[in-house]
Amino acid sequence: MKKNLLTIFLIFLISQLFAFCLALEQDKKQFLNLSFWEKFNDEILISNIMKAYENNPDLKIADTKIKESEKIVKLSLAEELPHINFEGMLGRTFASSDMLRGKNNFMIYNYSQTRFLLPLTASYEIDIWGKNRLRTKSFKESEKMLKEDERAVYIALTSAIAADYFNLIKTDKTLELQKQLLELNKKLLELTISKEKNGLASIDDALEIKDKTAQIELLVNNLEAKKEIFENQLSYLLGDKLFSKVERNTFDNITLLNQVPDEINSSIIINRPDVKSSAYNILRADYEAKSAKRDILPSFTIMGTLGYNGYTHGTHLFAANSGLADLWIVPNFDIFDGGRKYHLMKLKKLEYKRAQDEYEKSVLASIQEVNDALVMSKKEKKNLKISSEILDIQSQKLKLKEISKESGLANELDYILYQQAQVIAQQKLVDDKINYVISTINLYKSVGGVDFTNSENL
């Protein structure tokens, strides 16, 4: 029966531990804000974010810093509790000559003595002024600051992954369009050279097209290198030690976010990690300033000893007449310390003032970043709309030119020029579409990882 109860207790304990670890894991995953990234309707993007969650070294470092901070809080809490330690001692005293004791010069011939000391020593500083409690509270605020720093790492990481991911898709599409443009330019060069031989074009026309062709080839080479750089950056962010090929979607499957606001309430910045961290820093500095001020006051320590003090070994050591016990209170007050504690108090007050100024600065910087992100988002949205209209116009003009070509009213060279214009318009649309996507990502980052497409969060 006892074995069954022990087994049930162990199973319950393990299940509770597993549930606690699972809760911590879920709490960390909330920092990813997957519900926001799922609105891009890109499973590969979500997969990459989860891969980074498992492998990214920056997240692991941030998590370790939190654990270190938790231990610092526990160390500070331990300083508030009594300290009990055991210090055993075995000593043998030898005299080089006879010893005289007492008024009457009592003679002890060949004096020697063995002493056994087995005490438990306890000490406890009475926290009358609460300075130790304030110090522990300060460490707790530092822990909260680190947790906000960790959340900032998650927001920055997911934003960087998404930005590089869409830039990589943009580079793929741009490279594809530039290769099309290169082929069209080569055809145009062949036609121009042919016309130049027949005296219908000048050598300058051919040279100009050759120059454009060379420039496009340079651009293609640069895009190839740029693509590899984005892949390397993503591999690093994903924690991929093999730096294998990064999976990604195609440009045509990109989904734009709906309901991107033109205006955002400034109160949203309260959720930003840097603003929260600055607020916690004010409390931390306040606790430290108060603790430093109270450190000037006298301190009182209770000390005591309980154990055995014997001069013989064996059973006599633990006899009643060998018992040792004492208790005393030790007051301590620095009469002169060169002004160390006074200047420390002033220093902590200055740190508190600086923490307040840093909070004000973080609030102003946050408002600026949100406003800048909104401006860029609105600008890129307008640019995308204009680019779409330009591409539509160029596509219509190309269709008309194709009809003219089939009717014999336009030649091949003119048709290629219209094809080039259509590809260039397509390229502009690709740039503006990805720029708009990245502007929404920057907006998400500026508001502290809040889903701004949800009106309830604004």
Topology:
Layout: H1 2-30, H2 34-37, H3 43-55, H4 57-80, E1 83-86, E2 89-94, E3 99-101, E4 106-108, E5 112-126, H5 131-197, H6 203-238, H7 273-294, E6 299-310, E7 323-332, H8 340-406, H9 412-446
What this model shows, in words?
With 458 residues, the chain is α+β, with helices and mostly antiparallel strands. It has one domain: Outer membrane efflux proteins (OEP) (Up-down Bundle). Helix content is 65%, strand content 12%. Strands 1, 2, 5, 6 and 7 form a five-stranded antiparallel beta sheet that branches. A hairpin with a 4-residue loop joins strand 3 (99-101) and strand 4. Helix 5 (131-197) runs antiparallel to helix 9, helix 7 runs antiparallel to helix 8 (340-406) and helix 8 (340-406) runs antiparallel to helix 9. The longest helix is centred in the middle third of the chain and has 67 residues, at 131-197. The two termini are 59 Å apart. Residues 12-25 have low confidence and may be disordered.
